[in-house]
Every structure is written in structure tokens, then in C-alpha cells.
Amino acid sequence: MADLGIIAYISSKQTVSLKSNYVRGSKMKHKFKLLLLTMVTGQLLSIGCFGQSMGGGRLAGTWDAAVQITDCATGTPIPNIPSFKSTAAFNQGGTFVGITGGTAPSERSSEVGVWKHLEGDRYQFRFKAYRTDPGGGLPMFYEIVTHEVELDADNLNYTSAGTATRYSMAGVQIFSGCSEAVGTRMVL
Fold first, then answer.
1. Is 165 in the same domain as 95?
2. What is the pLDDT of residues 113-126, one digit of tens each?
3. Within this chain, do residues 49 and 123 fall inside the same structural domain, yes or no?
């Protein structure tokens, strides 16, 4: 009987020892995973901060702009075409959405597109918008507008210039023109 008690005691000690080794191993694995996650997160944040300091994310935000249609050859405003207002949101990650006051909302879709950092204070955006028949709301053609943007040092203003190309719904180019814009960041 005494031998069985000693065996049971030794067996229970081994079980406790195995359990505590298992728990210690699990805690070590958890700590290692946490350390690894912290290191990866730190690296991603430093990459993101470096990109921001290099100008990559400075354009992100909502902007009001005054747009002027221009002669592509000379850059001068085209007579009898008034300037118009436009509002755009440059989202983190490179997406773009906007609206314009240059055409009635019933005749033009919202602007949807992309943007990217080129270098320094220079960026580029491209968006697409559909023009619709005022009578029936059916798409007549679409426009693709591409601009290069120069952001000022305080991140509150920009100037841009570029092209607008109009395509039939079949994808055939039917017009190309130019425009310039002066933008002001919306702030609270």
C-alpha cells in the first residue's frame, strides 16, 4: 500500500511538473509572438512616418478649388468660359472623390479616381466622371481629368494643371482640353 502511495505522489509531482513546463512554454510562445508583433508594427509605423515626412501623405484631406479651363497651347483662360468651384477629398491610400460646380449635378456624376505622390511637393491625380443627358439621365460620354499638383510648404494651398479628355461611351476620344486650378485645404 505504501508503495502505491509513493508512486501516486511521484506521478502527481511529474504531472504538476509537466503542466508547469507546458504553461511556461505557452507563456514564452505568447511573449515571443507579442514581441514579434510589436517589432512588425514598429517597422510599419516607421515606414509610414518616413513616407509622410517625405511628403507622401501631405495632400490627404479635403480641398476646395477654383478651376479655370485654359488653352492647352498657351495656358491662357478661354474667353466666355467662367471659372468654377470644385471640392475633392484625397484619401489616405491614394483614392480620390470629388464634385464640381461647373455642371449641374443632374448632368454629371461624382468624380472618382486615384492620386499619388511624385516627389517633394508634387502629386498627380486622375479621376473619371460621366456626363448625362439632361432629359433622361442616360450617360452620353465620360471625362478623364489628369492634373499634376504642386503643394505649398504649409500644406494649405496648391496649384495644379492638366488635361481633360472626353470619350464616347464606346471609348472613342472625342475631345481634349486643359485646365488649371488653385486649391485651398478645408480646415476647422
1. yes
2. 999 999 999 999 99
3. no
CATH code of residue 177: 2.40.160
* Domain range for 12: 1-53
Best CA proximity match to 164, nearest among 151, 149, 184, 180: 180
Do both 69 and 30 map to the same domain? no
Sign of the CA dihedral running 61, 66, 69, 73? negative
Place of cell 460646380: 101
Count CA atoms closer than 13 A to 6's CA, side-chain side.
Answer: 3
What cell was used for 125? 491625380
pLDDT tens track for 56-103: 679 999 999 999 999 999 999 998 999 999 999 999 999 999 999 988
The pLDDT of residue 180 is above 50: yes
